[in-house]
Amino acid sequence: MGVVAKVRWFDIWLVNLDPTQGSEFQKTRPAVIVSPDEMNRHIRTIIIAPMTSVRREYPTRINLTFQRKKGQIVLDQVRTVGKSRLLKRLGRLSDARARDVADKLTQMFRYA
Question: Which fold would CATH assign to domain 3-109?
């Protein structure tokens, strides 16, 4: 089953985001899998949040250090991509950082 069986919630993968349009994050970069495992197991697309080394003080960004580099998880650029865009698994978020991402996503999509 290849990559399909290996994609897990809060894993970090190197993802090819090109081609893009407008202000979308582009190029090949690390991204966090934010789609739940049930989805990841059964369909050919996943939801990702790209990572960047450019830090901005936006409420939709989560600070982290990954592979000794400081950066952010960019939740304001969440997007759905095909699993064919995944190039290599790079690691996994810590439990604390995964909780931060889940909490922020809950805040962002809460129906008031």
Answer: SH3 type barrels. (2.30.30)
